[in-house]
Amino acid sequence: MNCDDIRQELEPYVNGELDDGAAAQVAEHLRNCGECSLRYAQMSRLAQRLKGLTDAYRPIRDFEEGIMHVNQPGARHERPQREGFWRARAWAAAAAVLALCLIGAVVVASVPALARQLPLPVGARLGDLEATNKQAQLQNRQMQGQIDKLKIEVKNIRGKLVNVIQTSKEPLSAEENYAVQSVVMQFVEAQYAGDLKTMKSLSTPAMQAEIDAHPQDYLRDKSGQVTFAQMTDVSKSGTTYLEFVRLIDTKTFNESQYQEDFELLKVGERYLVNVEGMDA
Amino acid sequence: MDDRFLVARARAGDDSAFAALIKAHERSLYCTALSLLRSSWEASDAVQEAFLEAYANLQTLREPAKFRPWLARILVNICYQMLGRGRRTVPVEEVPERAAHVFIGSEETLDLMAALRSLDEEHRWVVALRYFHDLKVDEIAAIMDCPAGTVKSRLNRALEKLNARLAGTIQKEVAE
Q1: Domains of chain A, start order
Q2: In which band, very low, low, confident or very high, does the pLDDT at A27 lie, cut at 50, 70 and 90?
Q3: How buried is A175 (Cβ within 10 angstroms: 0-12 exposed, 13-18 middle, 19+ buried)?
Q4: Alpha-carbon distance B32 to B132, whole Å?
């Protein structure tokens, strides 16, 4: 086999997938070819790093405290109930299992009759699920009462008057709120100005990499005008600052509002965007 | 613990066994979804949906030893659907959510994920299935519905591109 043939086999060789004969041929070639040997070393290192990538993402389990915690207005950032999503599933009972280990905070609004007939272990859990459902309904009613008491204030942020809705249970200082909200506002303005440089200057390295990888996901239509319809006050979870903005966009989202969700980190004295995502 | 054993127990109604399967595979699924989809939110949704489908259809899995490729195929289908659907939309009345996974890796790891996300979709798929799910070339070919030779050449090409995009860091590591 020549170098080209060997290089075609390097990836399966690195992963131990060649049969003994082919592996021996590759090994023999690598002993005698410096260039292929270097390629093999680089590919092995890259393969090792790729395999290690899964360890870099940790599932969040601190919201396993469940529905009680999620239904607090101060905990808006936690995984919310997603009734539409779950209700549509005949096998919604699976949520009872998944909720414990994956999400921890799922509210199933109703148990479809079909689920009772399923030949899955699901049936045995229906009783539990219905009890959870009743509890959730009660909590939803309590939550509605709390929502009714939410405070909305008109605030001047960077010269713009914005409705700021108080959602956090333990409000941060006015200075922190203003600083975080200003960064978010500048970021949104830069999105509409097509100004990647400013967006990145307001971002953590992780977010900068994300913007570099998918700039189109973060840029908005430059010809549109954006209005800040509403912002939440800033809430804090661990070291993460959370800010949710409702926007009116004359171009892309004509006649409706949409939402951008921000997570920021404090780096030195600055607040930097670490995650930005669009909601409807 | 062995997937076969856990699948057998889960099929017999042991939910803790299914929970153990989730724990064993959620990071692989999340990394795959993250490398393919547009945001960490979408990736978390895809993982969640994949486990729900797996739970609902566990009895249809013919060979419990093939749980890993079977689960990967479910995720692939979900990601395809989400990619085809365009931007995810969430009803206005829902409260905002945050992604269900946090990044705890190094800057180099972040560069690697960014480099992976910058590849063509076909290259991202094969790398994710190979390195996050530890699948064989034949298993990837079956999932992607293409010849094994195509998977091999895509893997080679993808790794070459990654090597080039990591701007010499791999070369430096190897030299050290």
Answers
A1: 3-56 (no CATH), 67-148 (no CATH), 151-279 (3.10.450.50)
A2: very high
A3: exposed
A4: 7
Residue ranges covered by each domain of chain B: 1-102, 105-176
**Closest partner residue to B51 among A46, A60, A98, by Cβ?**
A98
Query: Residue A60: left if φ>0, alpha if ψ -120 to 50, beta else—which one?
Result: beta
pLDDT tens digits for B117-152?
999 999 999 999 999 999 999 999 999 999 999 999
Are A102 and B48 within 8 A, CB to CB? yes
pLDDT, tens digit (0-9, with 9 covering 90-100), for A136-149: 777 767 666 665 66
User: Is 3.30.360.10 the CATH number for B105-176?
Assistant: no
Find the distance separating the first CA and the last CA of chain B, reported in whole Å.
36
CB-based contacts of A27, cutoff 8 Å, min separation 6: none
> Residue B170 and residue A209: Cβ atoms within 8 Å?
no
Position A123 scores a pLDDT of: 47
H-type alpha helices, chain A = 3-14, 20-32, 34-52, 67-70, 83-87, 94-98, 113-117, 126-148, 174-193, 196-201, 205-213, 215-218
Name the β-bridge partners of A272. A265
CATH architecture of B1-102: Orthogonal Bundle (1.10)
Q: Which residues of B are less than 8 Å from A77 in CB distance?
A: 96-98
Task: Evaluate if residue B12 carries a pLDDT over 80.
Answer: yes
